[in-house]
Amino acid sequence: MTREEKELIIEELKGKFAENAHFYITDASGLTVAQVNAFRRLCFKSGIEYRVYKNTLIQKALEKQEGKDFSPVFDVLKGFSGVMFSKEAGNAPAKVLKEYHKKLDGRPALKAASINADLFIGADNLTMLSELKSKNELIGDVIALLQSPAKNVISALQSGKNTIGGLMKTLEERAAKQ
């Protein structure tokens, strides 16, 4: 690979890191080509881009990110590294990794993740990352919480209407009997 080709890849990768608020770096060593392709298909179905890069190119692209310090990630850039890019949900790559782990006993392993520039280093963070709620899930929870008190008031008023109606009917019947 020529120096110009490397520079093009670094610039492309720099742009991907800048465009995508969430990325995961994985270790897929030991996987066959068929397994990596199956993993790529699973990522594609989930709206995640998965590409394999040389560690030095990943490091140089991360070094060029302005206003962000990705130096803790550099220690894990060894061996076979693939990068998962997600524009929408920060937990989507973690969920895909967890799903694929069921098939292949913990592979590909999580090396590092960046969610909105917050870094998570090591495979032990995978469960926590997969359980994070996405922005849309959090918005849904907030809306449900805001609607809950209104629903309680409305249901109380509606049940009271039936109680008052029943009480009025009973009083009316008593008055008619007397």
Provide a count of the helices. 7
- Elements, N to C (H/E): HEHEHHEHEEHH
Oligomeric description of these chains: single chain
Low-pLDDT residue intervals, each spanning 5 or more residues: none
Strand content is 15-25%
Mean pLDDT: 78
For the largest sheet, list the strands in their spatial order.
Answer: 2-3-1-4-5
Tally of distinct domains: 2
Distance between the termini: 104 Å
Any idea what the radius of gyration is?
27 Å
Task: Provide the structure class.
Answer: alpha+beta
Shape: elongated
Question: How many runs of DSSP E, i.e. beta strands?
Answer: 5
CATH-assigned homologous superfamily of the largest domain: Ribosomal protein L10, N-terminal RNA-binding domain
Q: Classify the helix fraction into a percent range.
A: 55-70%
CATH architecture of the largest domain: 2-Layer Sandwich
CATH class of the largest domain: Alpha Beta
Say what the CATH topology of the largest domain is.
Alpha-Beta Plaits
